[in-house]
Amino acid sequence: MMTGEERLSELHRRMKGLRKKRQSRMINAMGMVSTALFACLFIIIQHLGVGQFGTTTNLYSGSSLLYEEAGGYVLTAIVAFVVGTIVTVICVRKHNRDKENGEES
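RESULT FIELD:
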């Protein structure tokens, strides 16, 4: 027969396991979404890289991003994505560090 404290500790252990599973699923989902966004961005850049006479420009050069003077918009989008990714990583690390220290919010 389990005492009240044992049941409570078992409940906390199970809740911690469920939180870890949920977090793992969330991280996997975000990884898949990021990969899909990267693939879409690659396809869009590839389609925009077609030159004036149907020839393909060099996909890996900066000039392919300047098709029809859209370079500023593309650069802004890339910078915003990178900054968002960095902020997300910092927030997740801070959350994990706080969680390990017992400062759950």
